[in-house]
Amino acid sequence: MDAIEEIFKKNKVKPTAMRMLVLRYLVNNKNAVSLANIEEHFENSDRITLYRTLKTFVESRIAHQIDDGTGIAKYALCAAHCNCEVGTDLHLHFHCSNCNETVCLTEHKIPHINLPERFIAENINLVVKGVCDKCNG
Description:
The chain is 32% helix and 20% strand. The chain has helices spanning 3-10, 17-28, 35-41, 47-59, 133-136, and strands spanning 33-34, 63-66, 74-77, 91-96, 102-109, 127-130. The strands form two sheets. Strands 1-3-2 form a three-stranded antiparallel sheet. A three-stranded mixed sheet has the order 5-4-6, with no helix packed on it. The longest helix has 13 residues, at 47-59. The radius of gyration is 16 Å and the shape is globular. 22% of the residues are buried.
């Protein structure tokens, strides 16, 4: 069983042909990608099918959705140990203002935030904006 099939099995997601193609695309991309990026890559595919595939990946914690402040949702593959829970394994994201790429900084975790009593965090997003190493090189 290859790594792609293993991800589906671990997350209890049926590996359809399109899901396998999109997952392979995410695995091969180091940066977060938008639906438009995926549509461009799979130009003969239906936009709704691609969107539903990404939605399934987010719901099953194969991938996570990133709000990098550009107004366009980005998607990135979750790390093998990730369960996308608020307060336990969320990480920073970096958005380059020059090349417009967004990358996960999985080694840099978002610290625990103590909220006032009766406040419940449902999502935490921390994006660092600046110039990436490729653009600064």
